[in-house]
Design goal:
Length: 408
Amino acid sequence: MFGNEKNIKFMFDFLKDITIIDIIDILTVSFFLYLIFLWFKRTKSVFIFVGIIISSIAYLVVRILGLRLVATLMQGFFAVILLAIVIIFQEEIRRLFEQIALFSLSPKLRKAKMNQNFQSQIDILTGTIFFLAKKHIGSIVVIKGKDTLLRNTQRGITLNGKLSAPLLKSIFDTHSDGHDGAVIIDGDQISQFACHLPLSKDINQLQDKGTRHAAALGLSEITDALSIVVSETTGEISICQNGKFVTIEDKKMFQELIERFYESLGSGREIHSKRNFLTVNLKQKFIVVALSIFLWWFLVHESVVIHKSFEVPIQHISLAKNLNIVEIIPQEVKIVLSAPRRSFYFVDKEDIEVLVKIVDSKDLNKIEDGYYELIIAASDVTLSGSYSIVNIFPRSVKLRVEQDDLVN
């Protein structure tokens, strides 16, 4: 049974119970859910976040409906999914905790920590890239952003060497076996070289450009990395970011673009700018707030143990010989139950049964001629679910009995 209008009103009667502490609780959860959304967005895996949200809502609905088998199966499913997420996103999770540790520093120390190596790296890249361009040495240099590149690169050789001009020049030396692949820079380290990148199919931007440009553009389409390309034919320098090509005109332009990219890595201002924090991702913010309210409603408000009473008619079965029950006074008793609030969503008095069994006339206490008293016990109440019987009122009822040989 799914209840009546009174039960539906009972389900949505929570707004008057929300306090200031509850609002702070909901906003705090919303903030962390939004951070998780941004993390999935930066890893280009928003669809996984959406899938988790939909699955979680489905699980809560299943719990509300009391589908125990489905809920148990979904719990096992969530355990497997959680393990898979930890394995797949282990690098991103590591970086996330590194950022948490970094943001525990004071703002000045944090800014100094994030920017201490930027200028030297920019100087090394500027000098080396323009040297390669002057010599018409084809090359691809990828500066890693916040997204992992492991799933999007192939055949790379691990190096983990400190970034320097001599090392870059030796890698792209035409006599080197790995000069045709891409170099991956992570922080102040050259993490890999000779990497194969996914090729873009954007013919409008590629036009007469070669494979290096297609590879650099392809990686920028699926990650937040910045790719620097030097054309072997023309010596032209291009930068690919967010699926777009920019042709470099001089060293000043090159340095400004690289500086802007490093600053975005350090401050995250493309997302967390104070000027646009309240205006970006409005739809997603609304969703996480709504989800937080739903979680608070189900896990906090609806888990509170309450008492609810039901007027239930008394039914009887007489197993005693020649015992005829003519009347029960009163015909209904009030059953007071205790359980979490959500347990009462779909419960009506029709779901509760009070059935008294009279096995022998000795079970009855005579109170006056033709009338006898019967005690109602908790064992006489039948209902499904995890409910505690707090009280039964009245505890005894009066029976009018007809029997030839009634024994007191």
